[in-house]
Amino acid sequence: MEKIAMLGGGSWATALTKILSENGARVDWWLRSKDDVQHLLRTRHNPRYLSAVQFDLNRVYPTTDLEDAIEEADWLVLAVPAAFVQPVLDKLDRDSMKHKRVISAIKGMIPSKNQPGDRLRGRAVPAGPAPGGVIAGPCHAEEVALEKQSYLTIGSPDAELALEFCGLLRNRYVRAHPAADLDGIEYCAVMKNIIALTGGIAHGVGYGDNFLAVLVSNAVQEIRRFLQAINPQPRDLSASAYLGDLLVTAYSQFSRNRTFGSMVGRGYSVKSAQLEMNMVAEGYYAVKSIHEPQQKAQGAHAHHHGRLPDSVRKSGSRHRNGASERPAALIAHESCRVYVRPQCHYLRLPGGGKHQLLLPLCDEVVVAVGNSADDTLGLIRGIGSPKIRIIETLWDDTLREGGRVLAVETDKALAAVPTDADWAIYLQADEVLHEDDYPAIRAGMAQWAAHREVDGLLLNYRHFYGSYDYVGDSRRWYQREIRVVRPNAGVYSYRDAQGFRKGQNQKLQVKLLDATVHHYGWVKPPRLCSASRKPSTAYGTPTSG
């Protein structure tokens, strides 16, 4: 039985541990977090990444003891992000690394050295060139978890070693092949992350697939020039280890670099995007590490490896005209589904009237739209207001239990609110505000804007039930909700988007406004409601207006 030490607790380390252990190897798996190790030992899955993967604890041995993990290992697989791997290797006893073969699964650059992760093998092994290689794609950890057909490349000048490690990886859904061009494969793996990040920014600011196709095809030429400058040799960049890895990273929904870039393009700050993703986008850390040697090699031909154009770089900090006390608006939740209408003619609220997505109240309306089968995007775009900014999101179905995904989606929209906004009004897809309440909301925001101890504003809450003729008035219905919060102040959505918290689960300091949120999530469309059918009076009473 082959003995492998896996260093790293992320999605790629999780996927590789799955492959190797299910192929019969013993994997001593080092993770930094004691809580994660305890969770793995208790439930047999990683609580943070690829949680659907179940591990056989007779083959996988999670630990936080680094020396214990590598003591009996024949192979050492480095799957710690490049920006954080050096302190891990500094903890190793170099003498214990004698005769171990080191495989780098690091797809990034060591920031302090402008070198790819494989160069750290020399730090891990006491003397002489360390025997080893690198793992390259095209392959996403998420598809490995789903056991979709995948392809891996093991780059190493040691053909025998590469073939042996390929044998440890091959199974019914993974094909693995050796390649001798270690430098080319590793640098390409780094550069494709930067290109994918740039493509994500372009997508986020509204450029289309036509632009991305030109970006990627020109990037291939840049990669060719760069590799020839630092390590000239014949290589076919159309091979899967080069072009294939670039394409899957630039276009896939699972690409963290593309996702990170798209979030920045849509207005997230770098910090907000990093917190939201909870994964490392290697391309962000690699930009400088590629740009500096590229300049030295006289190969700096494309702007996206250096300073981004102002139009892209400033997309994360938009400035608005108008009075400073006016808020940015925030509308979050699933895909705004069938009950959201730009004018809501059929919603009989006190005094009549229409709701217009808060447009009269706000300088900007951020609409978070998830995947949907209806024409939600077309509906929102059809309103035609320059105030509306749409962010398209991808729901994490693993968070649906307990409704946690609702809070995650809310936080995505909240993070997109401009940093200079005083307030963010938050509405779910089945909630509206009546225009009659706008003056009270404006007055409340103006009154409390300078009082930084006030985290949010509380509104009365009215539940329509069954039809728009009845409202829920029993004690089971919550009567008030926070619907105005300070953005960029550590406020986050709580549980299933039930409310908001700050810091370590602290309640917000709020002030009550004389305004009402109207909730119609329990209402059927009028055409489905029979005129003679009335909901139980145990849950609601007729409306008075």
TrEMBL record:
<dbReference type="Pfam" id="PF01210">
    <property type="entry name" value="NAD_Gly3P_dh_N"/>
</dbReference>
<comment type="similarity">
    <text>Belongs to the NAD-dependent glycerol-3-phosphate dehydrogenase family.</text>
</comment>
<keyword id="KW-0520">NAD</keyword>
<feature type="domain" description="Glycerol-3-phosphate dehydrogenase NAD-dependent C-terminal">
    <location>
        <begin position="181"/>
        <end position="296"/>
    </location>
</feature>
<dbReference type="InterPro" id="IPR029044">
    <property type="entry name" value="Nucleotide-diphossugar_trans"/>
</dbReference>
<dbReference type="InterPro" id="IPR006168">
    <property type="entry name" value="G3P_DH_NAD-dep"/>
</dbReference>
<dbReference type="InterPro" id="IPR006109">
    <property type="entry name" value="G3P_DH_NAD-dep_C"/>
</dbReference>
<keyword id="KW-0443">Lipid metabolism</keyword>
<feature type="domain" description="Glycerol-3-phosphate dehydrogenase NAD-dependent N-terminal">
    <location>
        <begin position="3"/>
        <end position="161"/>
    </location>
</feature>
<keyword id="KW-0444">Lipid biosynthesis</keyword>
<dbReference type="InterPro" id="IPR011128">
    <property type="entry name" value="G3P_DH_NAD-dep_N"/>
</dbReference>
<keyword id="KW-1208">Phospholipid metabolism</keyword>
<keyword id="KW-0594">Phospholipid biosynthesis</keyword>
<protein>
    <recommendedName>
        <fullName>Glycerol-3-phosphate dehydrogenase</fullName>
        <ecNumber>1.1.1.94</ecNumber>
    </recommendedName>
</protein>
<dbReference type="InterPro" id="IPR013328">
    <property type="entry name" value="6PGD_dom2"/>
</dbReference>
<dbReference type="Pfam" id="PF07479">
    <property type="entry name" value="NAD_Gly3P_dh_C"/>
</dbReference>
<dbReference type="InterPro" id="IPR036291">
    <property type="entry name" value="NAD(P)-bd_dom_sf"/>
</dbReference>
<keyword id="KW-0560">Oxidoreductase</keyword>
<feature type="region of interest" description="Disordered">
    <location>
        <begin position="295"/>
        <end position="326"/>
    </location>
</feature>
<dbReference type="InterPro" id="IPR008927">
    <property type="entry name" value="6-PGluconate_DH-like_C_sf"/>
</dbReference>
